[in-house]
Amino acid sequence: KLQIWDTAGQERYRTITTAYYRGAMGFILMYDITNEESFNAVQDWSTQIKTYSWDNAQVLLVGNKCDMEDERIVNAERGRQLSEHLGFEFFEASAKDNINVKQTFERLVDIICEKMSESLDAGDPAVTGAKQGPQLTEQPAPPHQDCAC
C-alpha cells in the first residue's frame, strides 16, 4: 500500500509533518529550480528527515520545474552535488509537463523495496516487526536427574 503525503514544504507545516516522518519509508525532497530559497531549505528538510524518520528511510532529491529553463537559478550540477553530499539520488522533473514524475515515484518505490528486501534477509526487527527474544535451538533440554517421572 502506497500513501503519498504532500506537505508543501512550508515552515508553518514543519511541526505537523514531523509526526508523519516516523512511519514513512521514503521521501521525495523537492525544490524549485527557479527559487534559490527553496534550494537552500533542502539541507534543513534533510536534517528533519534524518532526525525524525526511520533509520533506513530512502530519500530522493528532485529539482522541480525543469520546464522553466529560461528562469532557472539553480543549475542541475548544484542539485547533483548536494544530492551526493546528502547521500540521496537526484532527479530533475516538471510536474507541469509531466517530465520524470512517474520515474521519480517508481524509483523511490524500487529503492524502498530493495531496502526492505535487504532488511528482511538480514532479519532486521524494524522491518519484520519481530521482537528480539531468546534464541531458540534444536537441542533438547537436558534431562532432570532428580525427576521421578
What does this structure look like?
This protein has a three-stranded parallel beta sheet with strand order 1-2-3. The protein has a domain at 27-121: P-loop containing nucleotide triphosphate hydrolases (Rossmann fold, 3-Layer(aba) Sandwich). The relative contact order is 0.14. The model has no long low-confidence stretch (mean pLDDT 84). The protein is 40% helix and 13% strand. It is α/β, with parallel strands linked by helices and 149 residues long. It has six helices and three strands; from the N terminus they run H-E-H-H-E-H-E-H-H.
Helices, strands, pairings?
Blueprint: H1 14-21, E1 26-32, H2 36-40, H3 42-52, E2 58-64, H4 76-86, E3 89-93, H5 101-121, H6 125-128
Parallel strand pairs: 1-2, 2-3
Distance between the termini: 54 Å
Q: What's the β-strand tally?
A: 3
Q: How large a portion of the residues is in β-strands, by DSSP E?
A: 5-15%
Q: From the 3D coordinates, which CATH architecture of the domain at 27-121 would you assign? A: 3-Layer(aba) Sandwich
> Segments where pLDDT lies below 50 for 5+ residues?
none
| Rounded Rg | 22 Å
Q: For the largest beta sheet, what order do the strands appear in spatially?
A: 1-2-3
Q: How do the helices and strands follow one another from N- to C-terminus?
A: HEHHEHEHH
Determine the mean pLDDT: 84
Secondary structure category: alpha/beta
Q: Helical element count? A: 6
**CATH fold descriptor of the domain at 27-121:** Rossmann fold
Overall CATH class of the domain at 27-121: Alpha Beta
Biggest β-sheet description? 3 strands, parallel
Helical content stands at: 40-55%
CATH superfamily of the domain at 27-121: P-loop containing nucleotide triphosphate hydrolases
Q: Shape from CA axes? A: elongated
